[in-house]
Amino acid sequence: MEKRIYNFSAGPAVLPEEVLLEAQKDFYSYKGQGLSVMEMSHRSKTYDNIIKEAEADLRKLLDIGDNYSVLFLQGGATLQFSMVPLNIMQSKADYIVTGSWSKKAVKEAKRVGTVNIAASTESENFIRIPKQEELKLDPEASYVHFTSNNTIFGTQFHNEPEVGNVPLVCDTSSDMLHKKIDINKYALIYAGAQKNMGPSGSTLVIVRKDLLERSSDDLHTYLNYKIHAEKESLYNTPPTFSVYIMGLVFKWLLNMGGLDKMYERNLAKANVLYDYMDSTDGFYKGTAAKEDRSLMNVTFRLPNEDLEKKLIAEATEKGFIGLKGHRSVGGLRASIYNAFPSKGVDDLVEFMKDFKAKN
Ligand SMILES: *Cc1c(COP(=O)(O)O)cnc(C)c1O
After folding, report:
1. Taking the CB of residue 43, how many other CB atoms lie within 10 A of it?
2. Which of 175, 206, 208, 334 is surrounded by the fewest CB atoms within 10 Å?
3. What is the mean pLDDT of residues 274-279?
4. pLDDT tens sequence across 103-120
5. In whole angstroms, how far apart are CA 88 and each of 145, 174, 187, 226, 282?
6. Are residues 279 and 312 located together in one domain of the fold?
7. Do residues 241 and 215 share a domain?
8. Both 281 and 211 in a single domain?
9. Mean predicted confidence (pLDDT) in 163-188
10. For residue 178, is pLDDT > 90?
11. Ligand 1 pocket residue status of 271, Cβ below 6 Å
12. Does residue 147 line the site of ligand 1, with CB under 6 A?
């Protein structure tokens, strides 16, 4: 088999090898049926099984009850920045702003109604998550929106904000399924697949059914959650291949022992990297506040930009790719999602030790 490299890309990101091999086995002719999933009608019995099984496995992983609809849509998390307010904002909503993605969500929500910024850490360059007591929440808000993991800044909510009876909405694009969450705390969750769940093309939306009553019949059809829920994600052609791969990832997670096991693994993986960084007297300096550090995107800096460039170049040569930080913030970022192997983190740390010794 060809050698795989260590892919630290923030997204599209690494997929489990087992999933890739399984898909490869069935790529040319799915389960001996003489055609690939990509060529199959989304109305066929075979495809219906694929999408239904993906949904059932996701429901198992997160204990999602019948009072929630699961939707597989297109348009990325970005379209959800618009669809969320279009469907469920009645006049005003609260947004917790913790990074570039939250800001983009706010931008679209403002086109629909009044946005109250419940808190923002922008003046501190988003290095931390606001504390509960900093949130200025409006009990009359249609919902509270937050971004669970800030892919670019490397911060993460380790607990949900407490919002009383106001529906809680979350963009979980970069940490969906990294641990077991209590789905009942949420009214709506959305996530693009391509970071922690599958290939690009599919966007997952989990929405509590009572919220569907808010979707107006005047909405354009594709933008209406209620229609997608009624049609079980088959109002139009869903991203068929992407959903198929997500389904394989869900099975992989179940086989690994579920989300509590995955969380243990993620914690251990992230700690190896953070502990090493913290032991280097600031040579490798984490950019996020310690208590808010992300388990998915580890952001750090070196003493100067020349060294950062040098490290990235040498790392790339050695088969560690995607370590360059987001263009808006610079520095380095190691994205270590569910599918990223522990050995890759160990090997990166060895490489970083070696680089430090030489520089
Ligand atoms: C990547 C990302 C997005 C944008 O996702 P698209 O699927 O490209 O629209 C939104 N939110 C978060 C937290 C992200 O990491």
Report:
1. 9
2. 208
3. 98
4. 999 999 999 999 999 999
5. 11, 23, 10, 11, 46
6. yes
7. yes
8. no
9. 98
10. yes
11. no
12. yes
In a domain, 9, yes or no: no
Q: Which helix (H) or strand (E) element contains residue 73? A: strand 68-73
186 & 295 share domain: no
User: Do 100 and 170 sit in the same domain of this protein?
Assistant: yes
pLDDT at position 240 is: 98
The whole-model pTM stands at 0.97
Residues 215 and 315 in one domain: no
Domain that residue 201 falls in: 18-255
Per-residue pLDDT at 2:
74
Tell whether 217 is covered by a domain: yes
Q: How confident is the model at residue 3 (pLDDT cuts 50, 70, 90)?
A: confident
| Domain count along the chain | 2
Residue 177 sits in a domain whose CATH number is: 3.40.640.10
| Mean per-residue pLDDT, 47-56 | 98
Same domain, 107 and 176: yes
Rounded to whole angstroms, the Cα distance separating 321 from 315 reads 7
- At 244, which amino acid appears? Y
Is the beta carbon of 78 within 6 A of some atom in ligand 1? yes
Closest CA to 37 of 252, 254, 239, 255: 239
Say how far apart CA 315 and CA 299 lie, in whole Å: 16
- Dist. CA 199 → ligand 1 center (Å): 13
Cβ 30 vs Cβ 190: under 8 Å: no
Q: Is the CB of 242 under 6 A from ligand 1?
A: no
Best of 72, 78, 202 to mutate for ligand 1, by most ligand atoms within 8 A of CB?
78
Given this model, what pLDDT does residue 1 score?
A: 58
- Last residue of a domain, which of 208, 226, 255? 255
Is residue 8 included in any domain, yes or no? no
Last residue of a domain, one of 233, 255, 277: 255
